[in-house]
Amino acid sequence: MDSAYVTLIAGGDAYAPGVEALGRSLYATGSAVPRVLLATPDVPERTLDHLADDGWRVRRVEPLANPAPPAELLFARFANTYTKLRAFGLEDVGKAVFLDADTLVLRNIDELFDRPDFAAASDFFVPDRFNSGVMVFAPSKARFAALEASLRAAKTYDGGDQGFLNSVLPEWWSLDATHRLPSMFNVHHFVFQFMSAHASLRRQFLADVRVVHYTLQKPWLAPTFTGASGLWWETYAALHPERDGAWHHRLHAAEDWTFDHVVRAISGD
What we know:
alpha/beta; three-stranded mixed beta sheet; 2 domains; about 270 residues; Spore Coat Polysaccharide Biosynthesis Protein SpsA, Chain A; 8 helices
């Protein structure tokens, strides 16, 4: 296939709701680009059958062990993220847009396939490095082999794939500007919530947000007090109407309200 959106589910099926919501969000934008789901052997077959029914083309892949010591992982979940590198070896995909399973697409992003290889957005915390939650690249067998050969030698500042990829692609920041995606293609959910809560920011930026990235808390795993909970659940409820209803709306609105008011208290507003 010429192009594909690609994501990963690994370490069991805990991220299946995230993949569901991501798929639904892509569908809602009117995109007809194929969606490929990489899945490790520990993901139950029934889960993958369900996700295939949702439109994902499932590919079983072997996990890639994280070479970093557990104590160096920024989050424990980073133990599984190196398997994301398998996407760089998809031989039948000409251009891939990789989206983490904790992202949500708000507006059509098919234009990303016109970006050069390699393209990504700056990370919120370290702006001269890219965030690996949204990436554009041309996969190949040789490219994956080169990444795999670097696993032991390359350093990772966060103990995960993002630090590793920035180590092996250090020239990204100095490439032509077309390799740097606008920040609205990878907006942290707490930034989205902050913009939503302030009228001037809401008027200026909110309509331009393309992808929201739930980097801190995952709405389906625990109560989310770092923003954009209601947004994610609205998308998920389109697939699971049993999770919709006035009580759920009030609950997730209260989660977002908590974030807004904590920020205002800190800022003295």
